[in-house]
Amino acid sequence: MSELKQSLLDFTQKELEALIKPSFRAKQIYGWLYHQYAETYDDMKNIPKALKEELAKKYLVNPMKIVKKELSSDGTIKYLFELQDGKTVEAVWLKMKDTQLDDNGEVIQEAKYTICVSTQVGCKVGCSFCLTAKGGFTRDLTAGEIVAQVVNLKRDNDHKHNRKINIVYMGMGEPLDNLSNLAKAIEIFKEEEGLCISGKRQTVSTSGLSNKIDKLGEMDLGVHIAISLHAVDDELRTELIPMNKAHNIASIIEAVKRFPIDTRKRVMFEYLVIKNKNDDIGSAKKLVKLLTDIKAKVNLIYFNPYPGTSYERPSKSDMIAFQDYLVHHGLLCTIRDSKGIDISAACGQLKEKTEGER
Ligand code: SAH
Ligand code: SF4
Predict the structure, then answer these.
(1) Architecture field, domain 1-62
(2) Domain spans, the chain
(3) What one-character DSSP code corresponds to residue 129?
(4) Which DSSP state fits 245?
(5) How, if at all, do strands 120-122 and 137-140 pair?
(6) Which of 130, 137, 177, 302 to mutate to test the pocket of ligand 1 (most atoms within 8 A of CB)?
């Protein structure tokens, strides 16, 4: 693979200031990147041409372009990006809350959004229910490619730099398998003069690499974690997530207990519900037991079928019975509303569809 060109989004503000002289020019460029969402050097109007030409030799401004966009009736927008080496990844713009108006039509609360980003092209973990896994693993995303997903989505939705936004690392790939680039992206997002997205607004979802959960905890970035648990016994979990052999349920629970979390917050456990696999009350019972000592919150997800899978979507009544059991036994539990169900909702499904059409 030919060398990928770095992008200006790969650097922290401090690094840019070391790279670009004089430093006030670095500050201006930083503003163009994170406040104006510049796409090209041409956009940077007050920057001398010679400096832009010099930088352009080494660095791209935007390392990716939108090649497909699917809009859902609920406000969800799914994006497919093409990277400089032609590979593609997805990111999703999720509308979490509508704008609220008072009786006079004045805005009291602006709409709230979350961006779901990818961290790898493909994934090594190889979960049996996941479409991303089917294509195998291609490569890690660079920090700049992670950052660029957010910048591009904010630009495309005209979302001002200082408006609050949440980030979930729940797109394609296993974030903790790309820990150094992930950590760099988290750091860049947090920068006060940039997008200023605090750790509290960022949630890393992992299939459960317990040693890396510890590493992320040691970095003390202030982010939340979500654990893709999906099963309550190791046999089924290994069928669903093969690397459970190396990182079993007990090791994950122990790592979660060590993870530094804000005492007011809960660790999210994601539980993908698959018909006749893990949707029974016996499983719910075990789940309650497993999470007794943890300040946890469970998010139940309907398995979203795709052509070729043998797994099935659970019935609504089984899903509700499962949730009721957890709630009656003291666990906070929500059912993920299938945002964008009409637009190839689950991870990897837009990419798969598009490549099939090409
Ligand atoms: N690799 C990380 C990051 C997110 S994976 C992890 O596994 O936690 C993407 C998300 O899509 C996960 O929450 C996973 O449970 C969900 N997912 C994958 N395939 C799915 C499917 N067929 N139906 C519903 N959700 C799916
Ligand atoms: Fe990778 Fe997550 Fe898909 Fe599993 S569910 S294959 S960890 S992206």
Answers:
(1) Orthogonal Bundle (1.10)
(2) 1-62, 75-357
(3) T
(4) G
(5) antiparallel
(6) 130
CA distances from 340 to 153, 203, 304, 336 (A): 16, 20, 11, 11
What's the fold here for domain 75-357? TIM Barrel (3.20.20)
Residues with catalytic roles: 90, 347
Q: Which residue's CA is the nearest one to ligand 2's atom 4?
A: 127
- Residue 228 Cβ < 6 Å to ligand 1: yes
Centroid of ligand 2 to alpha carbon of 358 (angstroms): 24
Omega of the bond prior to 22 within 30 degrees of 0, cis?
yes
pTM: 0.94
Nearest protein CA to atom 8 of ligand 2, as residue = 173
Under DSSP, the state recorded for 165 is -
Q: 154 — phi, psi (to 5°)?
A: -65, -45
CA–centroid distance, 271 to ligand 2, in Å, is 13
Per-residue pLDDT of the chain (358 residues; tens, 9 = 90+): 468 899 999 999 999 999 999 999 999 999 999 999 999 999 999 999 999 999 999 999 999 999 999 998 888 999 999 999 999 999 999 998 888 888 888 888 888 999 999 999 999 999 999 988 888 999 999 999 999 999 999 999 999 999 999 999 999 999 999 999 999 999 999 999 999 999 999 999 999 999 999 999 999 999 999 999 999 999 999 999 999 999 999 999 999 999 998 777 889 999 999 999 999 999 999 999 999 999 999 999 999 998 999 999 999 999 999 999 999 999 999 998 766 555 555 555 555 555 544 4
